[in-house]
Amino acid sequence: MSKESTSKTEEQLQVGGVNALKLAANYGTPLIAYDVGAIKQQIQSFREAFIRAGIKYRIVYASKAFSSLAMYRLLANEGVGCDVVSGGELYAALRGGISPAMIEFHGNNKTPAELAEAISQGIGCIVVDNFYEIELLEKICEAQQRTVKVSLRVAPGIEAETHQYIATGQSNSKFGFDLDSGQAEQALKQLLHSKYLQVIGVHCHIGSQIFAIAGFQMAAAKMIDVLQRWQEKYAFEAQILNLGGGFGIKYITADQPLKPAEFVSAIITTVQQEAQKKHLQLPEIWIEPGRSLVGEAGTTLYTVGSTKTVPGICNFVAVDGGMGDNIRPALYGAQYSAYLAKNLQEKATQVATIVGKYCESGDVLVKQQKLPAVQAGDVLAITSTGAYGYSMASNYNRNGRPPVVFCESGHDKLVLKRETYADMLSLEVD
Ligand SMILES: Cc1ncc(COP(=O)(O)O)c(C=O)c1O
Ligand SMILES: N[C@@H](CCCC[NH3+])C(=O)O
């Protein structure tokens, strides 16, 4: 359990200083509660690492981890930018008050309409992913008679130690221009000749939920090397080196991730040393954390319903949510920890598998965890659900998506309403 986002000092679970039982009673369950102070603390800790190193930087939050108007407003107030990967995220980010100049647009198949909208809104940077997109951008800019800043997404040929579905740095990734085969260089040449596309830098992102620092350092060293070569060969002076996100967080006790500042400090050291060796003027360093800003800050509260014991085999505890609000266990075999909100000190008396209410046997939130005796009506909390939970939620089985509350200094505020039956029918054509 994250110390920052939930408090264990009290007997009953607190989120951002608000009692979890009170939240469950006021808003119903399932409910996702964020500790806003914990998000701000993570941002600050990234910031301090850069400030200590004395280099120019930008923190760009990866919206896909959790996006809501309240979240974008928080980022805007903190002076943090964001990356978007769809027209929908772009629309929400702008509505949430993020200045267009602070937005980056990612994706391996951005549509012409999405790109046209981004350009007309004066987006800060488009991270160009493939040759088709270069052509599209040229046409759109010509039609709008505007120029746009772009950076070049490179697949640096690095296999990150993570689940294969969320590794993105290897040469056979669907994202970005492969570095080792020379495709990235070919793309750069094209961009340098463009009338409308102003290439401001390069980008790489090797994957997500990564604990090992070595992959980040290898990627950083490779990027510095390529910048130095491209500077010599093409007089290309990158203003920005974007090293992506991917910093792993703690879901279960066995997870021992570095702190954000430790990740960033180690990467910065590599970047500085490599740049010095190669006599390269260090560009501004951008990072794109998603999970590490919001993951541990989020806790999902559920109410226990049925329980089932198969003698000698297993104990099931069923809750009122499941794979609709958290697809990660089913999709990646992701592990989480559950707590009995009314008494964190109560002794475990059983090993239970916490399942959801969806019509799928794979709808398992936590497998085989020690748990106190629970009964119908108890509130169970699953921690570290702040990233890729709500943002990947569905209304499968016509269960509505849960509401989201922001909690800070003992106060709670509803930021996303529960999806109602009527909401779920709102797109139907009768
Ligand atoms: C391009 C890009 N940047 C940033 C992120 C954020 O990653 P994370 O949430 O692991 O920090 C992702 C997601 O993996 C991504 O694809
Ligand atoms: N959705 C993934 C991470 C996002 C990957 C985006 N490139 C997860 O829950 O871990």
UniProtKB/TrEMBL annotation:
<feature type="binding site">
    <location>
        <position position="332"/>
    </location>
    <ligand>
        <name>substrate</name>
    </ligand>
</feature>
<keyword id="KW-0210">Decarboxylase</keyword>
<dbReference type="InterPro" id="IPR022644">
    <property type="entry name" value="De-COase2_N"/>
</dbReference>
<feature type="binding site">
    <location>
        <position position="246"/>
    </location>
    <ligand>
        <name>pyridoxal 5'-phosphate</name>
    </ligand>
</feature>
<dbReference type="InterPro" id="IPR029066">
    <property type="entry name" value="PLP-binding_barrel"/>
</dbReference>
<feature type="binding site">
    <location>
        <begin position="288"/>
        <end position="291"/>
    </location>
    <ligand>
        <name>pyridoxal 5'-phosphate</name>
    </ligand>
</feature>
<comment type="subunit">
    <text>Homodimer.</text>
</comment>
<protein>
    <recommendedName>
        <fullName>Diaminopimelate decarboxylase</fullName>
        <ecNumber>4.1.1.20</ecNumber>
    </recommendedName>
</protein>
<keyword id="KW-0028">Amino-acid biosynthesis</keyword>
<dbReference type="InterPro" id="IPR002986">
    <property type="entry name" value="DAP_deCOOHase_LysA"/>
</dbReference>
<comment type="function">
    <text>Specifically catalyzes the decarboxylation of meso-diaminopimelate (meso-DAP) to L-lysine.</text>
</comment>
<feature type="binding site">
    <location>
        <position position="328"/>
    </location>
    <ligand>
        <name>substrate</name>
    </ligand>
</feature>
<comment type="pathway">
    <text>Amino-acid biosynthesis; L-lysine biosynthesis via DAP pathway; L-lysine from DL-2,6-diaminopimelate: step 1/1.</text>
</comment>
<feature type="domain" description="Orn/DAP/Arg decarboxylase 2 N-terminal">
    <location>
        <begin position="37"/>
        <end position="294"/>
    </location>
</feature>
<keyword id="KW-0456">Lyase</keyword>
<dbReference type="Pfam" id="PF02784">
    <property type="entry name" value="Orn_Arg_deC_N"/>
</dbReference>
<keyword id="KW-0663">Pyridoxal phosphate</keyword>
<feature type="binding site">
    <location>
        <position position="360"/>
    </location>
    <ligand>
        <name>substrate</name>
    </ligand>
</feature>
<feature type="binding site">
    <location>
        <position position="388"/>
    </location>
    <ligand>
        <name>substrate</name>
    </ligand>
</feature>
<feature type="binding site">
    <location>
        <position position="388"/>
    </location>
    <ligand>
        <name>pyridoxal 5'-phosphate</name>
    </ligand>
</feature>
<keyword id="KW-0457">Lysine biosynthesis</keyword>
<feature type="modified residue" description="N6-(pyridoxal phosphate)lysine">
    <location>
        <position position="64"/>
    </location>
</feature>
<dbReference type="InterPro" id="IPR000183">
    <property type="entry name" value="Orn/DAP/Arg_de-COase"/>
</dbReference>
<feature type="binding site">
    <location>
        <position position="291"/>
    </location>
    <ligand>
        <name>substrate</name>
    </ligand>
</feature>
<comment type="similarity">
    <text>Belongs to the Orn/Lys/Arg decarboxylase class-II family. LysA subfamily.</text>
</comment>
<dbReference type="InterPro" id="IPR009006">
    <property type="entry name" value="Ala_racemase/Decarboxylase_C"/>
</dbReference>
